[in-house]
């Protein structure tokens, strides 16, 4: 993974333990489920949510937090993330979803459904082990609901030119809510005071917003080789993200005919849309918004107690906007 | 619903409150999800799990249990059941699954996935509201895992003549685990002593085993009109239940050619299988096993403190084996 975390040796080391725990928990007697879970494990991502959790857990000086508990909560965040990824993959077959072998295509939809459900159960069990009796159980359940609402809103808006505000609402649920939780829980279970913990949640939300917008920008500006996933996939699936929505606002008539094709759009037409997004500065405008959120995060990070950790958090927030994948 | 519960006026009355609560909780801003949830609500089943929970909650004399809490836990059991039903419905399309409009076919697989996930979240939230800090959270999470493992084993065994013991293991997870939980929680949260509570769980498991076997018998012996769902659907989907497995043991050679067709089996051939199951007394043999489990339940019910409630529980266990749907 995790070049990102190499600069934070303590987090990097703990993330190895998180990974070992996740591998231990992502098991099933069912061979199809196990293969699917192994595939997920191999495609190991950036471990952003557990990494942020662990980094924020260091905010408290002289913390008495037990490492074992922190590792488990960090794992719960990644496992919830993986569960939602697996279920998000079960979309209705789009003719344009060629090129990608989705989990549902490789293993069947039923396997993908149950694999996601299994991870929800593991998530639930980790929470019960680590925070039974605390109000953080409810915060977790409410976050899970927000993730789901974000996904649902995105699904409902497919093939529609939704307003920018609606897009922002969706990603606040779909992505930023879990970043918020990671940072909030990191501060809380690390032993920070209530003011710092509240700030941590707000920082997490703003980092999450910037991260998702940047992710959506990369879908237009990167190449498949660098991004390690097919570019321009969102458009084909009717997910119109910020660069497109902003370019559309500038020149709606140029987009109208292409977007009217909806599910019937061809790969060539998708490339035309990408060209229009570029022509009308959709990605540049989106970058400005991502920077806004990073600045909001940075302003709040400046309110944290000044420690080496808060400096690292500030660096990380900047770094997430410089990545190429 | 619920002719079944008319004989138990207090349970019947409380089930109305459970239903109102479920309707209040099964809501979504997303119109597709809402329609799917409304369909589920309309197809209201027998409310066995919340009904058993409420009946067992009456076992304790002079209980100080708060009705509000009991209604919520009862609702959590039905909602978990509905969530698993919705996800079980997302199987890979079988050519023989005509005639049924499945939720996935009507609303799309993605909608069905998210609707189930939403109900898991509601389930989780109800538990946190009613039993945060107790060890029953873990019991619930473990039960959820057992349900899932039962489903997975059933999926793995599709189109295979599994041993009877493996079938029994599957239904112990898939069905009996939730019946066990309903009765166990009913006794516990109703205020019963530990001995009664433990017995309640065992009674629930045996009732659940008998119930599922009887359900599988009805798939062979009932008609579509009476059962209100297509008969012989399991075979077409490769789910070989007890009547078939027992008949197969008696005369394997007569089945071999037909079962070898697997997914390619025709409706006519499914009827031939049903005929063979009848000829080799598969349903009668299965009924004997169902009666065994009912007798086990009855023997344990006899160990409960003698009250009007324990008599009602004994009646109900018998009644579940006399139903026609």
UniProtKB/TrEMBL annotation, chains A, B:
Keywords: Magnesium, Metal-binding, Transferase. SUPFAM superfamilies: Terpenoid synthases (SSF48576). Its cofactor is Mg(2+). GO terms for biological process: isoprenoid biosynthetic process. GO terms for molecular function: metal ion binding; prenyltransferase activity. CDD domains: Trans_IPPS_HT. It holds the Pfam family polyprenyl_synt. It comes from the Bacteria. Belongs to the FPP/GGPP synthase family. This is Polyprenyl diphosphate synthase. It comes from Liquorilactobacillus ghanensis DSM 18630. The lineage of its organism: Bacteria, Bacillati, Bacillota, Bacilli, Lactobacillales.
